[in-house]
Amino acid sequence: MDLSIGSILVEVVIGITADKALEWLQRERNQQSFLDVFVQAFDRTLDEARIVHEYKAMQKLSLDEKRFRAVMRSQLKAKVDFRESPSDEALRKLSRIINQNHVITGEHNLTEQELDTFTVRIIKHAKIYAGHLIDRNQTLSNTYNRESLDVIQQKLDWLIDNQSQPTAESQIPLEINITHVRQKFFEMSAVLRHEPHTIRGTDLELKRDEFEQIIRWIQNAHPGNRFGAIAGKPGYGKTVLARSLYNHLNNLNYATLGIRADRLSTTMDQAQDHFGTDNLVKVIQAASAQTPVFVIVDQLDRLASTANSDSESLYNVIDLIKQIKDIQQTYIIIVCREFELKNDPVLSKLDVEQTFVMQALSETEVNRVLRLLIQKDLSDLSTSMQSLLREPITLATYADLIVNGTADPSETFYSLYHLYTRKWQRDIASNTQDVPQYQSQKDLIFQLVLEMNNRRSYEAPARILDDHGKTAKYLQSIDFIEVNSGQVSFNHHTLFSYCYARWFVESDNDLYQEIVSGCQGFYQRPKVTQILEYLRIEDPREYLRQLENLLFAEAPLRTHLCVLIIQRLADQQDPTDAEKRLVSSLLQQETDRKVFFGAIPNKTHWFDLIEPFARKLLDSESEDDLSVVLNYLYSF
Q1: Gap between the terminal Cα atoms of the chain
Q2: Rounded distance, CA 366 to CA 370, Å?
Q3: What is the pLDDT of residue 587?
Q4: Do 379 and 231 form a contact (C-beta atoms < 8 A)?
Q5: For residue range 611-629, what is the model confidence (pLDDT) as tens digits?
């Protein structure tokens, strides 16, 4: 029988059972040939799938761990850059799978029930992945069309419906000591607990109205309303609020667990060490029988942004959330950017019962900070500063500049870009004594930016820093970058976007080509915003050229990016004549016109330009046009 790589992959991934695939191939090929073919299949789908079923099937070949490691690294690393950290993580997953399913090297003395359990687990995760492919109309290694994937889905549905249901591991009672659980949950939540939370130079922790709203929701929540979300714009303090909430609940002696969505595997490893199982659902079920349990899943948007390259991680977290939210006496709160929560094809399907959207800081809160920093109130500053400093990330960055004497209280800044530029001039380009050379700092920063961009992530392996000893230590000492759990990241993802914009412009790249050559995913959004902001200030002529390309290209961008660019243009407080001409062209198109009008409520600085269009639309027979202009006029 001539088996293609695709047919092997389908048989393994959809879970008709790894045993059947193995038996099939061993009858037709020797073991080494099977390894070669299987590794090729794994190679071609690694970036798309990254699911553990391939590891399980390979382990069934009686490979010991040493041989497994050698095969994985020698045949995969050169082709797909299978790095040390992911490989070690995969091996830890494999070790847990072996221990839990008794799929051991050598003899395979599996009971029928154990084999059923093993098969159900494969089917369950394969069903999620196949459904993901169908939802996104993707193909499996460019081999299977949508019709083929529908067939796979039908097979999976049949297998789920007809598979005997053994006693699942999560149904086996787990005896725990609730005091032990609280302590270990506390240790497992270290990343969230250690999140910076005060404004530099003041030691103030900002008070947020949303905190009180969440507490009231928890106190009044009925059994069917225990799934909440903290949402908001980038830099609006979502994680800081999650930290405050964690500390409050933990101090009330509830079992409270804080998870970073993109580090779920680390949390599972910790659970294995502390409770003898990496099944968090099982641990939470046992704890909830004795006390209310709160689970906070932070930075879920990081996985949404990178879902095109790491769908397994996203679906693992989603699967965990769906299981936890049905456990009695258990509350789950996810933390995510508002746009991703509403528009991501996966996250938008979560049945969140209560969403708390982060608002701009109150004037009272900003005044608490400013009175300590510059002995002024918000009302004493310019209009642009009043708007700017009501965003937590800009207030924190401004405070940092003031404390270090880099900014004068009398200065006016217009955007986060201006603040970061001053920070760059102070920390990176100062060329002061005992500071690494500017070029060495810039080289390392740009190397990190490129690595993260290639990974579509806000993190990169910390080993990149190994060859930049002094420079790396300096960047960490000034809180420009940080290292955690073997990963390096910028102080905030908005700082990454700023650094990416600097690299992009210095490299003379074309923004339109950069976008259309990729997946045009949500990960692009903050980068597009920062690049346009950078160009608008540093090179206005190039800014207009790039903006025209983005808005009027023959092959238009994805809708979410077009809307973002138009909204950003509408947000300009001081539009130039050239920008006004672009807007005049946009208003000729019905879809663009609707987006623009929707982005300018209460913005009087556009009124003179759009008044003729507004009058024309009031006479229009189009109900959509009439609705658009009336909604705008009602906003004043």
Answers
A1: 73
A2: 6
A3: 87
A4: no
A5: 888 888 887 777 777 887 7
